[in-house]
Amino acid sequence: MASNSTVARGMIDLGDEMEATIVRLQLAIIAKPITAPPPVPTTADVEAMFANHYQASPQPVEISYFPPDFVLQFDNKKNYDIVLSYQILTDNKYTFSLAPWTHDARCHLEAWKIPVNIDIHGIPPHAFHPKSLSVLLDPYCDIEAYTMDKKSGICTVKGTARSVSSIPVTGFLSYPQRTGYEIVIHTFPVTMQTSLLTIPRRYSSDWHQPPHFDIQPICNNPRPKNGNNKKTLTWSAELEDERRMNNPLTFHGFAYSEETSDEDDPNDAYYYAVPPIA
After folding, report:
1. Averaged over 164-183, what is the pLDDT?
2. Residue 71 and residue 94 in one domain
3. Half-sphere exposure of 164 toward its Cβ, with a 13 Å CA cutoff?
4. Which residues contact 101 (CB under 8 A, 6 or more apart)?
């Protein structure tokens, strides 16, 4: 989705109430008008259809309008299945097709998986705060780390986006201030320079560990004649295994641990920490 200054895009932080609504909508049916004589049907028309033509049918506990469709909410699976099995609702004015509700059906989907580095110029000193970064970038980028350098006036953000070009080049940072009977909006222009963030990949040559040495029997002892040489080699190998366990591998200065925050692909671990936003 290309950036456009005439189109508003807000990123929602789903709270408990919205998450509960998503779960509740699993028992909702979308009623889509398939005949469109004027006037356009309203919620009252759908309610009247159930009251006059589907009295014996389970009734929705709520009917809401999601233009141009209607959402029929049910409170149990049995009633939901019965109405959904009708496939259509009709009377002498309107006909609706019925389908299970899905919150993905009418939305635009984006996959954010490109690591980016963003240098932001123009944030005023009194707004030099992590909250300003969220206002500017939440609709375009998942912020994973940032550095705010007051001496240079540059804020550097590392995160994940759809692409390098999906981050706007210019933007505006605003805050309101009430004076008397009016609210004055202070707006500052900012520029954002985005580049691809190169993440080190984990190749075998990148892993640093103590130099490997060939396991050899102890040289200052005579070679056993009764087959104990095999036992000596085994004992030496066990010492080497113990030594390696006590000296964990390191990768570019970071100790490797099986407890990693990256659960999907170890090549995509970032090793950044984002301070909490007050």
Report:
1. 92
2. yes
3. 9
4. 25, 26, 28, 29, 30, 71
- Are 182 and 138 in a shared domain? yes
Same domain as 65, residue 30 = yes
Q: Are residues 70 and 37 both part of a single domain? A: yes
Q: What is the Rg, in whole angstroms, of the alpha carbon atoms belonging to the chain?
A: 31
Confirm if 224 and 234 have CB atoms less than 8 A apart: no
What are residue 167's DSSP bridge partners?
none
Among 87, 94, 143, residue whose Cα is nearest residue 118: 143
Q: Are strands 207-208 and 250-251 parallel, antiparallel or unpaired?
A: antiparallel
Any domain includes 253: no
Please calculate the CA angle 172-176-182 and round it to the nearest 5 degrees: 130
Mean pLDDT throughout 87-91? 93
> Within this chain, do residues 173 and 216 fall inside the same structural domain, yes or no?
no
Residue 270 lies in a domain: no
Residue 216 lies in a domain: yes
Assess whether pLDDT exceeds 60 at residue 266.
no
Q: Which residue segment(s) compose the domain that 129 sits in? A: 114-196
- The structure's pTM equals 0.59
CB under 8 Å to 60, separation ≥6 — which residues? 29, 50, 72, 73, 74, 83
What would the pLDDT profile of 192-229 be if each residue is shown by its tens digit? Answer: 999 999 865 444 444 444 444 444 444 445 555 555 55
Which of 76, 100, 124 is the C-terminal boundary of a domain? 100
Taking the CA of residue 84 as centre, how many other CA atoms within 13 Å lie in the half-sphere pointing to its CB? Answer: 17
